[in-house]
Amino acid sequence: MRSGGRLGYAVVLLLGVLGAAACGEQDSSGAAGQPSPSGTATETSPETPTGTPAPTYEPPELDRTELDANLAALSAEDAALADHYLHAKGADRMDEGTWIVAAPLTVAEAKERLLGPGAQPLAAKQLDAEVDFDHSAYAFLQVGDGVVAWEDTGFADPPKRLLAALSEGGAVSAVATDNIEAMTRFGYARDGEIVFDAFEYAFVDSLDDIPAEVRDLARLAWSDPEGPMVEIADWAAVAQAMSEKVTGVRATPSVLDADEWYVVPVPWGVMEDY
To answer: Which residues form the signal peptide (predicted)?
Structure first.
């Protein structure tokens, strides 16, 4: 599981880099040949026996007392959601990317609200030719009375205005992202209005910034800016659990098997929310 505190991560990584650099300097000085009285460099013996494994860095084991207490304090409904997403394995595990869920809504309605009228799909076999660094593609799937949409980069999440539009007419929509830079957005809208949306929800200043209806789940992944670095739950998994709680729609990896995909820019709605 990921552990809390971006600053803490940066310090750990910096110490690792500095340690590696120091080792490199020591090895370089020790490996250099020393000149002999005749002026010819002679080979020196290594300081450690041949075959001795180099020391490896082991990250510190973090205290999970608070996490266990927060898990134990969840309601039955929240505990079931957390258990599903935190412990998903194999085919049930959510891939990295952007996950959008909304209900009640049809796929046709979701496409029009997110992509506009007349959006043209690509077949799955066309994706390699059409998707590049500046473009990604969404697949859509009907799940009960709701919709799941997914793209694989985690950087093509919809701007707030589209998340809100997706929830118009009494619907609820939610977005959760996970990408290679570990940026985890969670946001949701109800009846055309944004309720909550944070680019990195786990690092808000206070849990009071998060709506009460999802706060207990968010607590599992929240990094207290004033507290020590402790074990926390996976940011993306908790975002998925909160998305299902507010929409009633369970994200499913089955959306990855869609035959039709819709290209969007990366990023989507450049800087309009920042």
So the answer is: 1-22
Asked if 150 and 157 count as a contact pair (C-beta separation under 8 A), the reply is no
Taking residues 121-150, report their average pLDDT: 90
Provide the token pair at 186: 């969670």
User: pTM for the whole thing?
Assistant: 0.78
Cβ-in-10-Å burial (0-12, 13-18, 19+) of 230 comes to: middle
Query: How sure is the predictor about 23, in pLDDT bands with cuts at 50, 70 and 90?
Result: very low
Task: Judge whether residue 91 has pLDDT over 70.
Answer: no
pLDDT bin (cut points 50, 70, 90) of residue 33 is: very low
User: Which residue, 268, 270, 237, 255, is CA-closest to 78?
Assistant: 237
- Structure tokens that stand for 27 in this block: 């090895």
Alpha carbon 232 to chain centroid, angstroms: 14
Concatenated DSSP letters for 214-233? HHHHHHTT---TTS---B--
Block residue for tokens 């959601």: 81
* Strands of the chain, DSSP E: 34-35, 41-42, 97-103, 122-123, 135-143, 146-151, 172-178, 186-190, 193-198, 260-265
Name residue 186's beta-bridge partners.
Answer: 176, 198
As a whole number of Å, the end-to-end CA separation of the chain is: 29
How many Cβ atoms are within 10 Å of 183's Cβ, its own excluded? 15
Please tell me which residue, 16 or 194, carries the higher pLDDT value.
194
In the beta sheet, which residues pair with residue 49? none
Sequence spans of domains, the chain: 1-61, 65-265
- In tens, the pLDDT along 48-87 reads 556 777 778 777 788 999 999 999 999 999 999 999 999 9
